[in-house]
């Protein structure tokens, strides 16, 4: 089947299929004589696996590990369980971080009159320098992400 059909069957966009091939999550597709990609049912099955893992919030690096375990018939289920438990711990950290952001914003909103005056405690707080003594974290979004070695992964779906 071509990439459009594979996309429809797997519910993964053609753009993401090409991206997954580029980064090695799926093997390079076979090509027709005219250069079009062709996919098998095994490829669709792998794309379903990747899609489900992405829906559960696993990073590309974690999915790489999961695919390795999925393909290793001599694996121990304890290895898969450990990876899932680590992912839950990371999700819990991210949830806690988001809850802290929510509480901070609620407090700032409570302090803001929200009227026609230009004074705004929300903006005044945002303009203040960070006085914490913690080392600066590399941040790519609203929630700090942990690094995955030398590879960085986009959270695209």
TrEMBL record:
Residues 1-69 form the HTH merR-type domain. It comes from the Bacteria. Residues 145-157 have a biased composition (Basic residues). The keyword Transcription applies. One of its GO terms (cellular component) is cytoplasm. InterPro entries: CueR (IPR011789), DNA-bd_dom_put_sf (IPR009061), MerR-type_HTH_dom (IPR000551), MerR_fam (IPR047057), Tscrpt_reg_MerR_DNA-bd (IPR015358). GO terms for biological process: positive regulation of DNA-templated transcription. Its main location: cytoplasm. The keyword Transcription regulation applies. Keywords: Cytoplasm, DNA-binding, Transcription, Transcription regulation. Residues 121-157 are annotated as: Disordered. Gene3D superfamilies: 1.10.1660.10. One of its GO terms (molecular function) is copper ion binding. It is found in: Cytoplasm. PANTHER family: HEAVY METAL-DEPENDENT TRANSCRIPTIONAL REGULATOR HI_0293-RELATED, REDOX-CYCLING DRUG-SENSING TRANSCRIPTIONAL ACTIVATOR SOXR. This is Cu(I)-responsive transcriptional regulator.
